[in-house]
Each structure stands twice: as C-alpha cells, then as structure tokens.
Amino acid sequence: MNTGIVVSLYNKENEIDKKLISQFLESVKNIHICVVNNGSTDGTLEALNQVKAKYPDKLSVVSIRNKKGIESALKVGFRYLMNHVTISKVSFSNQLNFEELKIYSEFSNKLNLKI
Predict the structure, then answer these.
(1) DSSP readout, 13-39?
(2) Per-residue pLDDT tens digits for 66-106
(3) Which pTM value belongs to this model?
C-alpha cells in the first residue's frame, strides 16, 4: 500500500528542484506524489513532466487549465489518486516541502507503518 501525497502548485517553476525531487523519490518507498499544476502560466508543468518521465510509478502530474482555489485543486488530485493509484493514506499540501516529507517517511518507518 502507498501513501498518497497531493500537492497543488501555481507558478512555481523557479522553486522546483528536480534534483531534490529525484533524491526524495529514490530514498522513500511506498509514497506516490500527485502534483496538481493549478493553472500555472510559467514552466511549472514542463518541469514537473520532466521529473515524472523518470518516476512514473512514484509521481503523477495533473494539470488544471484555469487556476482554481487550493481546495478545488487538491480535490482534483485526490480524485486522480483514488482512480489511478492504490493508496492507504493521503496527505495534502500547497508546497513541495521535501524535508517535511522525509521526516514523515522516517517517522512512519520507525513506527513500522507501511508507507
């Protein structure tokens, strides 16, 4: 079973660290991240799709054409996960904070939770 993490991003091209995302996805098990591109007008979608090409089993990218509220964007990501990935838990965020995600993963592993 996977833990699903839904993240909504809007115009964050300059904040997407592809190397950090790759390191994170390689270091954790049973986590699937669904990033919702919430109507970005910069290169956010292209940057996310480059990473997705390397990790299609651990990263999904859903794109909304016109920007919506964060709650609506997260709901789109949640629905995508429910229909395309087997998950047992889900978490939501409006940013890609890999330090928090890494701590969450390590904590769950120490408790012998399967994430």
Answers:
(1) GGG--HHHHHHHHHH-SSEEEEEEEES
(2) 999 999 999 999 999 999 998 888 888 777 776 666 666 66
(3) 0.83
Angle between helix 18-27 and helix 98-110 axes, rounded to 10 deg: 10
Contact 74, 36 (CB under 8 A): yes
**Domain 2-110 has what CATH class?**
alpha beta
Q: For residue 88, what are its two tokens?
A: 């047992």
Q: Where are the domains of the chain?
A: 2-110
pLDDT digits (tens, 9 = 90+) for 10-32: 999 998 888 888 888 888 888 89
User: What is the spatial distance between Cα 2 and Cα 60, in angstroms, rounded to a whole number?
Assistant: 13
Structure tokens that stand for 41 in this block = 């007008």
Tokens 């390689």, located at residue: 26
Reference 22, options 57, 54, 62, 60; nearest CA is 54
